[in-house]
Every structure is written in C-alpha cells, then in structure tokens.
Structures
1.
Amino acid sequence: MKDKKILLGHGSGGKLSHRLVADLFFPYLKNPILEQMDDSALIGKLEGELVYTTDSYVVDPIFFSGGDIGKLAVCGTVNDLAMLGAQPRFLSAGFILEEGLPVEQLEKILISMQQAAAEADVQIVTGDTKVVPHGAADKIFINTSGIGIRRPGISISGKNARPGDVVILNGNMAEHGIAVMASREGLDLHVTLSSDVAPLNDMIMKILDMAPDIHVLRDPTRGGVGTTLNEIAIQSGVGIKIIEKDLPVTPEVQGVCEILGLDPLYVANEGKVLIFCAAERVDAILHVLQTHPYGKNSCIIGQVVDQPKGKVFMETRIGGQRLIDMLAGEQLPRIC
Ligand code: MG
C-alpha cells in the first residue's frame, strides 16, 4: 500500500477504504469466507453446541515484549471460547484506527493476527474498519468476536467447582501484565520479560480428550489469579484454598512486582488457565499439560473446600492463613 499513514478517508467507505482492505487487510486475513465480500459472512451449517463471545482490546503500548494488540485480540477471544471447552472456529475483527497511525504498524499487527489465527486454526471471516480523527482514539482499538463449537458431553462452567476439586495452573503468573507495564514505562530492568499471550485451544482440547469431565476452566486475565479464583468461589458457592509456596512466579517477575508494588496474584495473564477437576483426574491432566509448550510449568496451586463459601484464602509460607480478596478497582489500566 502506498499510503504511509492512516487517513480519515481510509474509513470513508470510498476508494481509500477499498484500497486499505484490498492492499492491507486482505493479503493477511483472507480466506474463502472473507473473500465473498458480502455484507455478512455466510458460515453455513455447523454441527454441535455453538459458543459465542466478544472482547475489545485497548492495550497500551500496542507493541510489547512477547506480543502486540493483534496477537492479543486473536488469542483473547480464542481462549474465552476454549474456556467453555469449545473449539474456536470463526472470528470477526472490528478496527478503530486513529488518523495518523503508521500503516507499517497496522501491517505488523495484521501479520500477528494472521499468525495467531493460523496457530489457533480459526478464520477471521468478517470485519470492519473505522477511522477517527487524531486524538479521538489512541492509535488502534480492536474488537474481536468468536464462534466456537463444543462437542457433546462437556459441561464446564464457573458454577461447577465442588469441594475436593484440585486447582491446577498451567505455568507462571503475571507475565503479561508485567511485560506490558515494563514496555509502557520503558523500564530498563536488565531482565527479559515477555508476555505469556498464546492461544490455548490446542492444549485445552488435548486435556479434554483425556478428561472430558473437567469442572471449571477459566483464564485469569484482568485481575489475575486472585480475582478469577474469587469469581469461581462465588459462582460455585465454595471455598478455595491456595498454597503460597506452590504459586508459580519467576524470580524476575517477582522482582519487578516488588519494584512496582504489585502482587503477582492480581496481575493479568493472557496464556494461562485455571483448571478445576476431581482428584483422580489430576495425574492425567498434568501429564498432558506438562508435555505441551504452553503447560510446561503446570502445577497444583490449591483445592476446593466446603467453607468459607464464596471466599479464597491462602496458606502462607509461615503457616498462617490470609484472605485473598478480589482486586479492588483497577490495578493496571489498559493491560489488554
Ligand atoms: Mg476469560
């Protein structure tokens, strides 16, 4: 595309819009359904239980260590579908672009979306682009919606945790939030920090092959593991006990959290899943997770108990107990 920057005309629906779609969006996102170029995507008949979700992405900065807003927009929606046990199939992508956005940056974002969609085996089948005047948005916002299909016999919900369940996490906490914060603040920390953003559907489908009777799957994104566990405790009407010494955090992330005054339990993840299952399923699930690239550091972090209902508490390193509340307010704005 010959234009160097996004102009208001690229959102006009006229010639510039057509050039943007033909020269930039299509080469990266095209597939037989998108190429129909009609007002809606004709998906046709689908077999199975349909699962549908949507999310908007406003992360700042749009490029960060380990990913960018495009990868996040695909993975976030893919993961929300996978959290219900569905195989993600089709995505929509709506773009709000700020006038003046360098075309080169948009191209990098589209390449990331293409790569993430290919890895997750989903197609972006419909989309929209609007351009707003300089200052009316910050560079680029993306909304993605997704449709997934769930095979029969799976019943996964935040309501299904029951006393005796084991709580598994597939790796280290807080990597996304800390990588974005470090990129945003331009912190020179002499350590490598990288977001964990990743499509989890392949790993989830593999654990469901082994254990279709998993009770709860949820990705601890905004609000982190601490807030997500509280949501599940409330939804299921159970208590959740976690063990401080078993919570996986790298020394690098722990160190940066201490510098920034953040608790890794409340920092966002974008490639993590909390799995609640019956004790007899744990070994099989951990085996599958630990042999998958996105689950190498999987471990047990706690268990479901009968009391106190709707609460999360932590057994501390020194043998005490601490209540883990939901995150109050926003710890880190524009993290996803
Ligand atoms: Mg989610």
2.
Amino acid sequence: MEALAYLFVYSLLLSLLRSSITLDTITPSQPIRDGDTLVSADRSFQLGFFSPASSKSRYMGIWYLVSSEIVVWVANRDTPLNDHLGVLRITYEGVLVLLNSTNSTVWSSNTSRTPEIPVAQLLDTGNLVVKDGNFDDPGNFLWQSFDHPCDTLLPEMKLGKNLVTGLERFLSSWKSIEDPAQGVFSVRIDPRGLPQFVVMEGAAIKYRVGPWNGLTFSGNPALRPNPIFNYTFVLNENEVYYENSLLNSSVFSRFVLNPSGIAERFTWIDRTHSWQRFLAGQLDQCENYGFCGAYTTCNPNNSPICACFEGFEPKSERNWNSNDWSDGCVRRTPLECNDGDGFLKWTKLKLPDTSSSWYNKTTNLKECGGLCLKNCSCTAYSNLDVRGEGSGCLLWFGSLTDIRVFSEGGQELYLKLAKSELDRIEKKKQPSKIKQASIIGSVILVTGIIILGVIAYIRKNRLHSKGMSKRIDKKDWDNEGWNEDMELPTFDLTAIANATDNFSSNNKLGEGGFGPVYKGTLDGQVIAVKRLSKNSGQGSKEFKNEVQSIARLQHRNLVKLLGCCIQEDEKMLVYEYMPNKSLDFFIFDQTKSKLLDWLTRMNIIGGIARGLLYLHEDSRLRIIHRDLKASNILLDNNMNPKISDFGLARSFGGDEVECMTNRIVGTYGYMSPEYAVHGQYSIKSDVFSFGVLVLEIVSGKKNRGFCDPDHNLNLLGHAWRLWVEDRPMGLVDESVGESISQSEVLRCIQVGLLCVQHNPEDRPNMSSVLLMLSSESLLHKPRQPGFYTDSRRTDYSSSEHATYSANEISTTSFGPR
Ligand code: ACK
C-alpha cells in the first residue's frame, strides 16, 4: 500500500517536473497535458492550458503567440479545472475530451463520423479542427472550434445561422475578465424577417446594427472598405452569415464582445507590440435599442434627441415631456387603408427593426410601394439593396422602432400616412404670405429679445464682478418646492430598518457627503440605503435635489435609484447595490489596482464618458453633476462604472449653457478653475473633472495630494510635464501590467489633457470625447492645463469636500468676483 502511494507521488512529481512539449497535432497516442502546447504551422496561434487574470482555475484555450493574454477561444468555459492535472486527448472515434485529475470528462467535442486516423490540428486561422489524417480534404472537418465561437470573431469565422441544419454561430461575452463562462451578452444575426446584426442582453436586443444593405449594415454606415480586412454578408435559402477576411494575412485583427456587452475590433500593431482599437459599438444614446419608442427618430445632435415622425404625436404627452420617450408616438390620423393613403419620404436613416418585415430581391421600388399600399398593415417600405440605383423591396408590418438619423450616409424610408395627414404636412411646408410676414416679425422680435438678454447678462456679470453677491443659482430646488409627482416608489421606514438590520454598524458601507450608507436586503434584492444625517443642516436640500435629479434618469452608467423613504424625520434614498465599491478603492491602492488591467480601465473611462454624455446632452434639462470624482464612481459585478451621488447636481434648460453660483460646492482636485475661482459652472466644468479622473485612472495617482521629488506640480502638472518632455508613457500606473495598448494610453492621456484645459472653450464636449476615445482621428494638441500646481491648494481648506457660503469665500482670494 505504502509502495503504491510512493509510486503515485513519484509519478505526480515526475509529471510536474517534466519539461513542456510543443506539438503540431494531437493524436490518440499524443495528448496535451497542462504545460504542453499545440501551435499552428505559421506560429500565429497556440493552444494550451491557462488561468485568466488573477483566477486560479485552469481552462483550455487558444491565444495569439505574440500576445498570450488575448485568449480567442475556450473549450471548458463553463467547467473549469481546479488543478494543473488536466489532459486533452483525442479518442479513436475522433472526439476531443478534456479530462480532470480523476479521469472524468469535463468537456468534449462531438463528431460527424468515425475517422480512420483521428488527428486534431490548430490551423493558421486559429481554428482547432478534428480531421481524418488519411484524407486531405480541407474544409471537410469532423469538428471545428469555429462552429462554437466564444467571445471572439476571427477572420474566416462565420457569424450567423445555417438555415438547413439549424447550427447557429454567435459570440457570447465572458462573465468577467476572470471568468470565461458564458455571460449575458451575445452578438448574433437575428434571422427573423430580413436578418439583422444585433447585440443581445439575455433574450432582449440591446443594440441593433441592423440589416445588410448591400454595402454595409444599415446602422453602421461607417463600415467602409479598409486596408485591413474585407467583409461579406451572405443571405440565401441555405444560410445567412457575416464573415470577414484579412487582406494581408500577416496582420492580426479580432472582433470581440467584452464582458460589458460592447463589441470592439482590435488590430495588432507590430511596431508598438500592442492592440489598437479599430471601432467600438454603442457610442451614444440613440444606439440603445428602441430608446425613443415606436414611430420616432433619434438624433444625438438634437435636444431632445427623440422626435415623433411627422404625422405622429407622443403617445403620452406627460411622459414625453419628462424625457421618458419609451412610449413612443402614435398616428395623428388613422390610415384609410385604401388608395387614399400615401407615403412620406425620409432620408439618412438607420432602417427600423426588420424582425417583422418581408423582403424580395427582384421587386423594384415602385412595385414595392404598390404592395405596401395594398396591405393595410404595411407601414413603410424601402429598397433592399442600396448599391447603384437601388434594388429589391423591403416592407414593414406593424410599428416601426429603433430608427436614428445620421448626419452622413443612412438610407431612405417611405412611411405610410393618411392622405389628410400628407395634405396637412404639405400645407405646413408652404407658409402663406401672412404666415411668412409673421415669421419674419417673430424672428426680428426674438433676435431683439436675445440681444437685450445678452446686454442684461453682461451688465449683471459686471455688477457681480464689482462685488455684488446676489444669489443667481439657476435652479434652486428649495424655491421650486418638493415635487410630489415623481412616480418614484416610496419604502416604509420599518421595511428599510428590517432590511438593514436596524441600520447596524455591520451593515454600514461607509460615510458619504450627507450621512452613512448601509447595505441591506429588501424582498431578496440587495440594496444600498443612503440615510440623511438628522443633524446635517444643509442635507435636506441636497437630498431633494438628488431625488429630483435622478428619479427619471436611466442609463447603464448611472447608479439606479430604486426608491426613497420620507417618514417621521428620516429621509433615505434606496439604490441598487454595487458590489465592487467605488473606483478610488481600486485605483489608488497598490494591490487592488493590479485587478484593473488596461482593458478594464478603458471600459471604465468609456462608461463614465457615456454616463456623463447622457447627463449633459440627452435631456431637455441638462444635468451638471458638479462632483464627479473617483469616489463617486461605483463599480458593478463586472467592473462597469456607475456615476453616483447627485446631491450637488444642477439642471439647466435645453439652451442654457452656463451658470454662476456663490456657493461653491464640490471637491478640490476635481474642480475647474472658473468654478473654483468665479463660481461659474457649465457642462465644461464636469468635463474638467472627467479629465482629472482619466489622468487618475491612467496613472493610479490622486490629483490632489500628488507629490513628486522633482517638482511641486500636481498630477495635471506632472502629466503635462511628461507630455512636453515627450515621455507621456511615464505617467502609466505600473499595476496595469502587460495588457497595455500604447496607442490607447496615449490617446487617453491626450484626451485627459484636453479636458483639463484652462479655458472651458478649449475643452471638448462629451460627445467629442467619446469620438476621440474610440476613433483613430488626429486629436488637437493640448496646451498647459488649468490648476497645474498644487501650491494654491493649501489656501483653500484642509477639508477634501468643500461647501462654502458667499461670506466665507469672499474672505479668501477665491470668492466669486
Ligand atoms: O467606496 P465605498 O465602499 O462605496 O464607500 C462609499 C460609501 O458607501 C459612502 O458613499 C458606498 N456606497 C454608496 N452607494 C453605494 C451603492 N449603491 N452600492 C454599494 N456601495 C455604495 C460607497
């Protein structure tokens, strides 16, 4: 017995000590053990065992030989091994089996037939195939990994559905960077109606790239011929798929769905040994599926961004006016369902959802209109293929959703309307002479009012700079009164007390600006309860403000308010619980920052930018956060950022751009110069704070309190100094590790510096920031940032969080002038 145990330990040691082997095929007599690898003939791809990020679990996967951290396929994504004793074998029947230390199968492939000589090989494309070694029949494999994609679409790989066999090839995200198990997001070709490219979250469409129009996908006019890859879309009775292939096979390019559900393309840059992001999906609000509801168009350059099609009106005027567009619009006049109906032509559109559409490749546009008129439930038509003069016919039945307007490109759509409605629109376009005269009169009147307004504003500012301290906060919720009509669920005090174990100290998450925050469980849902301190004199106003500001906002990068509780003298806000705490908990901690690789940091920067864009540009009331900082960015399960703490937020009317206050609130280190010094705030003061955050995320250092033995600059000054000395990479946090993409880092630093420019006009707005972060366009050169030394900091206050009255401010040199 003892001898047997020795033998076992000896063979175990032997297997651990044996040197790893690199193979070019797997055969029944030549399996792969943990430590061994299989490589493609051109040495592009490698297969073996790995552990993602800081996970200890072992998976079998395929990665690039030049960049081993980029895993493109995982066999046992849902069944990890927990030791280094896994073995991958091929059976004599041609089935790949992954065995654990007790010889149990944790993953296996299937096969279409039994080969004479079973062989598994990793092809130069990154495809792991099982074939018969006796026959050289390329393409006729017994099994291939390309039929079972994970989160990455490689060149030559098909994305779509075989309509004969039913085999569907789709991408599904990893759960997190540490866990390749199938996540909630997927990229598919939805075969219903005219097939379209979609990103799904569970069973719901999250983002619709749209149907193929012969040149590109209807929702992605930017997909153009390029020097790296070409693309094909095939649609026939047997199959529907999208595929791309490399124009130069020595280039690496991959299309990935990340754990946050964002689809991105990366290209390997050999010179810098890094991956460059080529394009990224979902850049603005209009790309959220059905954001504006039925019969609407979404235009990110308009405010509000949603509009009813002409001939339609909001279904619920009340919801529409409060920026809840999801009900969409309805016809003003019902269709007559006879020859009396007609069509209104729209251009530059992303075509509506085609899942309930009908198409025909040979019918021409005129016949197409005729078919639509004949069918009462047909609501619109367009060409199927836009190449040349256009061809084919596409008809929609039922309501039209998820339509956006492009400034360039886009397609034509013929929308069916009742004749009386078409006549009304026609009349509206030809104003009568009286109407014309009144329009001219109104224009003159409005111009006069604007000029008078500007003069009054300038005079007011002059007065102000001479020492007047009249309060001119644009929207003061105390004056407005408490809006009872907020449709926000209210919770019972006893229920919240029970949920938080009577606000026990064990449940306390931390202390925010207005009081403690507790973790709790209410009806099975984990919540965070922000309890307003009773002795916090000024908190009540901020409390109302926070509720008012975010009750109606919904965005994946804003923390979700579930309800509130106002009972006795208690005021509480109930939020969804964010398990990963706040961003400052990670970035400024030497150990925890190692968990934030470059991709995660980029995802966090992008998420904050999208959340801020939503606040700034997506509502008639612009919202300025005024206290954007690392501790106000919470992180969800997948490290997605959520902007929180709206206690200091202010809202503006649609056209207002700037305001003044004599009560300067916010956090030093993140405040823009014009706000800290003159009390002027605008969306550009949030952009400044965003810039500080970007530089903090890249460097892992706090702006306030930054110190360097070589100078007396703060982080902004330090970043600027490295920039002018042409060594910007010196800013990067060492904890980022190997995953770094130099071009993305440089872009982030440059965008960060542009956001912290001294003059608000020199800072970009958030839509430009997002564009700059995701494209390869040339960026402006930054100039010296505002507030780049820390010497003045000590003049302000020793407290991190500043809330001053006018009197206190006027005693320092930084009061509003
Ligand atoms: O960094 P933290 O752990 O994250 O400490 C602060 C503290 O409460 C005071 O703001 C935490 N916190 C705030 N809101 C939430 C939330 N929705 N989920 C989880 N933690 C939260 C915050």
3.
Amino acid sequence: MKYKIAVIPGDGIGPEVTGEAVRALEAVAASFGHQFTYEYVQAGGAAIDSCGECLPQATIEAAKAADAVLLGAVGGPKWDGLPGEERPEKALLRLRKELGLFANLRPALMFDELAEACPLKPEKVEGGLDLLVVRELTGGIYFGERGVRETADGPEAYDVERYSQKEIRRVAEIAFEMAMKRNRKVTSVDKANVLESSRLWRKTVAAVAERYPEVKLENLYVDNAAMQLVYNPKQFDVLVTSNIFGDILSDEASMITGSIGMLPSASLAEGAFGMYEPVHGSAPDIAGSGRANPMAAVLSAAMMLRYTFGLMAEAEAVEAAVKSVLAAGYRTPDIMTDGCIPATTLQIGTLIAERIAERK
Ligand code: IPM
Ligand code: MN
C-alpha cells in the first residue's frame, strides 16, 4: 500500500519524537512491503519563527493533500507572551477545525511494566486499566462566540457553549463504534442538570444508543465522572463527552494510568482521515537532550496505521515492539525506575524499529 503522510514536527521535543515515529513507520514499510512518503511542514512556534504565523497556508494544504497527519507538539515559553490569537496553540485549534477533526480518541492504557507509577492504590487498578476517552473536538465552548465587553462595573468576558444535534450524533457514533470493538460500554459525560447544551447532548446520545443494543449506555454528570475516575476507574470502557469536559477528563484519565508520557491520540474526520499526536506537550526544558520519550509518538503512528490505513497487523507489530522494549527494561528518564536500563530517545527508537523488523 502507498500512503502520503504530512509530518508537523512542531516545537520542543516534537521533532525528536516524530523522528522516531517516522523510523517506526519506515520499519513497518520495509517489513510489510508498504510505501509511505512524508511531507514535512511547520506549525506552532517553529512556524511563527520561520514564516511569521503559527499555521501557514502551505501547512493546511499539505495536511489536506495527505492521507494522514503526524504531529509532534507545539508551544514553548518563547512564544508565551504572544496574544491569544497568535499563540502556537492556536495552530492546533485551527488545524482541528480546518481538517474537520471532530472526534478525538485518547486511550488511557496502563502499561503493566509501569504500574508502579500509578498514583492510585494498587487494588483500584488491579488487572490494569484500559479506557478510551472520545472527546468532541471541533465544537462547544472552544469554538463558540466569545468576546469582552465594557460594562458600568468594568469589563465582562464571555465564551459560548453551543452544540448542534449533528455534532453530538457524529461523535457519539464514533464512541459506540469503538465500544463495539472493546467492552461494549459507553459512559456519556455531561452537565445536564444545569446546561441546555448538555440536555441535547444526553438526548442525542440516547437516540444513537438505540442503534447499538449490544452496548450498555450510562450517563454521568461531569463532576461525578471526575470523582469516579479516581474512585473506581475500572468501571469505564469508553467515555464520550464535549470538547471542554474531554480536555479535562482526558488529562485526569491519562494521569491515573501512570503512563502519561506514553499515551498517543488520534483526531478523526469524516472518512478515514486523521491527525495523530502524542498526548504529552513540547517539554522545551529537555528539548535536544536525548531525554524525550518517543513511545507516545510511536504509538500515535500505530494508531494511524490502525484507524486511517486499516493496517491492523502493522499497528499491532508497532505496539508489541514498544511493549517488548519496555519489558526488556529500557527506559527514558521520565519512566525510569530502579534496575532499569537508561536509554536515549534515539536508542529507544532504534530498539523499537529493530523489534518491528524482527517480528515480520
Ligand atoms: C489538548 C490541549 C489543547 C486543548 C490546547 C493546547 C489548546 O490542552 O490537546 O488537550 O485544550 O485542546
Ligand atoms: Mn488538554
């Protein structure tokens, strides 16, 4: 198979970790007989420095012309002083909107080898944790009307939360499809006791659920969901929620796995197109030092193989390679524990690529 991938290395450790993800993809291409081509384009701080804007038109065009996008991370202290509209993070929001990436999949998976890093009591996570947050990504308060107005008492600012039935339905469908391939439970998270937009959310999700009789649907208010995630995380399979609630809950879910630096994500559009990126940020403090953990980026490439290219065996080979490198005891500093073997970004990438090649 032939696929075209737009690569947006971004800022901080972004270029290093996407470099290793591309090496993993090349190992897949070589051992499974595929051809991947890469077009490198800029976004975020790197784009501000080289073209004066965080998301150049050329980047949007390259992304649209590709089958999938691989992104590192954007942002850093260098650009923190810029006004909201010009910040590197704006590039992410615009990419999501321009590319129609309405469904954000954030798996929170606990790696057995890293179970010690889980901040919850061992009995809460016995047998491991494996849940999937499906976050709506192009609607809600992130993209609603906003502004600041002067009043007699001083300035007043507002951001509008708005959801159409269509926006809710399409992300709910993704959640139910995912649940069908997992443990057949969807927890829809909202604030329907207060918000009108949440009441439409709940009603719409219930209507979608009727088409999936094998899947159990549960509704939780967001405050309760935040509490249940630390109290009894094993009750969850797929969580589906709005843009802002998903932003918050996906950080919480990833933290409780103890593997936050290990987690990948996929942002999907209608059809198979998607953008894939590690959940971690640009970590400017360690950029260029060889300390970055490339596993989340590599696992993001695995998600690309699975969701956009439909290459299941290839995706599994990448995931197995990551697990095997962990099992052999190699660790970057973020996940280092006693008795493990210190390794650099490049070494981890090399070990993963070797294992992908061996597996075929
Ligand atoms: C995320 C990030 C972004 C978001 C920021 C950087 C705009 O926190 O991807 O979760 O809020 O969506
Ligand atoms: Mn976030």
4.
Amino acid sequence: MCGIVGYIGTKKASPILINGLIRLEYRGYDSAGISTIEKDGLSMMKDKGRVKNLYQLEGMDNLNGTIGIAHTRWATHGKPSKENSHPHMDNSKTFSVVHNGIIENYNELKNFLADNGYTFYSQTDTEVIPNLVHYYYNKDEKNDSLKFLRAVKNACCDLKGSFAIEIICKDYPDHMIVTRKDSPLVIGKGEQENYISSDIPAILSFTRNFYLLNDYELAILSRDTIEFYDKHLTILKKEPKNIEWDATSAEKDGYEDFMLKEIYEQPTAIRETIGAKLNEATKCEFSELNFTKEYLSSLNNIYIVACGTAMHAGLAGKNVLEKLCKINTQVDVASEFRYRDPLVDEKTLCIFISQSGETADTIAALKLCKQKGAKTLALTNVIGSSITREADFSIYTHAGPEIAVASTKAYTSQVILITILAIYFAEILEIAHEQVDLLKRDILELPRKLEETLALSESIQSFSKKVYQEKDIFFLGRGIDETVAKEGSLKLKEISYIHSESYPAGELKHGPIALIENDITVVSIITDKNLVEKMVSNIQEVITRGAKTLVITNQDIDETMFDMTIKIPKTNSFISPILSIVPLQLFSYYISKGKGLDVDKPRNLAKSVTVE
Ligand code: M6R
C-alpha cells in the first residue's frame, strides 16, 4: 500500500526511480510520480494510472538530476487524480515530499497553515507536510547546514498518525532527508550512491546493506554519507544489516507470474525455515527465545493475532499448540481483537504472525498486548520489519521475498514455523515425547512431499479449466481441513474475483446448503482419517443437489463419486495444511489465468496493508 523510492548518487535518478516503483507495483497503487532536483530547481512528474505511463510524460526525458524521490499512491484521502498523486510541493516550490501513511491531524494542520497564508491544491493529507516544513524553515533565523533538518524535524513533531517520508529541498541539492513512524522505509547503502525504498526487494539488485530507522528517527543522505538523528537531533550510530536474500529471488526467473514461482518455491522455503532449528537427534533450538518450563506452565492463554492468510496460518498454530502443548490458544483477526478489550495479562503469551511485518492492525494489536503486560512474539518473514522492532521476541520464516499479493509460500512457512515453535514448547514442558518424535520425522519429509504435490499441477489445471467461469465456488472441510478451506477460499476470491465461501462441512445443513444448486462447484479437503465418513456424507449431500465436486485428500476413499480427486501424500495431521493448500493455490492460479486476470496484482488489493 503506497510505495516510496529514493535515489541519490552519480547516475541519472529518473530511470532508477521509475524502475524502483515498478518493483513496488505489487504493493498496490492507483497513481505514481517522481520529483528530482534539476539545475533550475525541483521537477515534478506525476499522474494517476500505471507507473510505466510516467515514461510518456512530457519533459521526462529532460530530467538529468542525480537525486530524486518517487511514489506509488493507494488513495485514502482524495480520489486517484494527478493533483492528489505524490510528490507534493509547498507553495514556494522549495520542498518536494512523498509520504506513505496517514496524517490523522491533517485538517487541524491545514487550517493552521491556511491561517498562515498557505494554499492547498489537493485533497490529500500529505500536502500539509511540505508546507509545514516550509513554515518552520522560514521561521528559522539560523542559516547553517542543519536548517533543512531542523525544519523537517519540527514539522514531523506536529504530525499525528503514521508516516514514511522522503523530502528534498532545492536549497540543499546534494541532500535528501527521510524519516518514519509506523510505516515501512529502508535505506540501502551503495558505493557513491544511496537508495530508499518501502521494502527490501525493490532495491535488492543494488545493495545487500540496509539501514533501518526506528519511529521518529531521521536520516540525512548525501551521495557518500548517511547520518542518523533521533527526534532531538542527537546523532545516532547505526550498523547496516546484511540481508542474505538473493537478488534473483525478487525476479520472475522464467515463470509467467510471481505467484506461480512462489508456489513452486515452497519446498525450498520450508527447507530453509526448518533450517537448523529442528532435527531428530536434538531438541528444537530457537536462539532468539528464552522461554522456561516455569513460564510456559504459568500461561493461562496464548493469543495468535494476525490478518488474512497469516491468520489462517494461526489457526493451524492453534491446532498444534492446543493438541501438542495443551495450552489454551485463541486466534483473532487483528482488526477485531484490538477493539474488543481482550482478556490479556502477564500470564498471556501473544503471537503475531505477519509476512511483511508491516500490517498496521497487527502492529497496533501487538502494542496493545504489550501495554497489558503480556509477552509478545512476532513471527515474520522480513528481518528488521516494524513488528520486530515492537515485539519482545521475533522469529523468522525464511521464505525469501514474497512479491505476489496472494500469499502462498509465506503461509506454508508460517505453518511450519509455528509447528516447530510448538515442538520447542513441548520439549521445554517435557510432554508428548512420542508425538514430538513422529512429528519431527514427518516435518523433515515435508519438502520432498511438497515436490510430489506440486507434480499434480496438470490435473488441477484441467479441473480449473472446467470451472473458471463459475460465479460461486464453495470450500468445505472439518477440523484442520476447515482452516485450509478458509485459506483456499480467500485465495480464490482475491485473484479470480469469483464469489466464494468456506464452511465447516457440518454446518452445511444449518443454512448454507440452501445455496447449493445444480452444477455449482464444491471443493472439499479430507485429510483427517477420523472424519472421512462424515465428510463423505456431507459431500454426498451436495452431489445429490447437483454439485460438481473436487476433493483434495490423502485418505483411501472411493473416488468414483467425485468429479475429480487430487490425491496428495499422507503426512502428520498437524502439518497437513502445508500439503493440502498447494492444490488450492494452483486451482486459484489457473482459474485467474483462465480469466485473463493479473494474478500478481489483483484489483483493489495491496501486498502490505499499512493503514488500519
Ligand atoms: O503481511 P501480512 O502477513 O501481515 O499480511 C496479512 C494479510 O494482508 C495477507 O495475508 C493477505 O490476506 C494476503 N493477500 C492473502 O493472500
């Protein structure tokens, strides 16, 4: 949601900025723009629509500046339009700003600035920022090298809400200032050049050395230097983080779409996430954690809080934490949890799952739990992301960058990591030894079984061809399979725009079966041997009413009654979602392709939901 890019160096900035924006397209946007410092002052090129349209804007070829800022906007205040696109300048065209986030007190600031003679040309909250910086800049009587920095710092102290901001000033043609609060921003250090981005993959091909800012910290960048300051303008020392992700992991690498590539990367992502944490001979190891038997035995509750797909991974986490560790576990959608005064105290462990580590509601829920005295643990894919800076503990999936909006490898990596976490707890608690041994063995076999599952892709593609024009598709499951039905249904909705519902199969007769009519498609997941008969009876009920059926199973059942059965490898029920979701990911992918849709960038959606 909104992307920012910045460049300062020796090369022409505009193509670097536009290419950076293209790499951030997956975050979701409706307008784009760039601003550079030219010999005659600040340039600004922007419009609604796709990033590549920027190349067509008159004057773009004439930009030669080697410092610039860029933005993709996902409209919040004011419709998508040229005026509302970023960058925004102050009235005197001294400052140019791009901003990701929401300024909650923009009305108040706008009135204040209007009273001081400023005029506004857009409906955005952002436009107050360059004008407020200008207001402080003008008031400052000192004309030293820190005047620009002081003005930005003073303006930011007045802002309420969330922001990641890049700002350039025509009076300081060799400098750029960036700052953030609750919105993502990374600084990439190169040789005689520095980069800014909302996330790491967009600039991974230029550098592996990244700096991260904490809330309200500022950085002033030149071609060769990066200086860091806190909100009182005290100089800070920071060490860069070396990111191990391979630059090609942010490329399509011969695949038609990122989503397909990421589906096929799952065996590797699982292997990497298991890493050295789990083996058959020794106890599970999380060097980042220091939980004791005493602490875990004292817990009254675990809460898993997340959004979307990450929340579905949390449901698999609940299953294993309750069954293996015998700890009462609840799963909540972050945007609901925050507002329902949850019963959280020092005896609660709160786990937050987020691929990006930047989801606004999840981070806010984490802050709430901290206030209530609970220990907080972030489970994320992005080192140094905002959530990791808030949580008491952080553990990481090693899925590599996930670019497609529809989450695939992040989900399966989250499920495996929370399962390993549960094993780690069980080993500390000295319980369930036999179950743990079996589960460990099954986990280590997962990458191979995932490869076998991916090999089923052709049959799934052929079934998808039969149903891609449907209006409604239902997903059914029981127990752990119902959590997979939820994730399968979400995947289908987001990339195919087909209306879809998922239900616990036993609930059908309590209402939803009224929707089942001739030729409707029902997808069912059956991996729990204790629930096979019940599931088969439920499927028979929909067949009787004319439904077409796709069944994903690892059980030996009579397949003749279904239109298509996808037989996946058998595995431990705690980790069965990691295999059973794969056919459903492929199912959604092929339906979306059949409809000719943009699989990686579905309409209205953003990869990283940084507003509440
Ligand atoms: O980055 P996060 O894991 O916190 O994102 C949470 C959801 O926005 C995300 O899982 C979303 O539901 C995906 N688009 C689903 O494919």
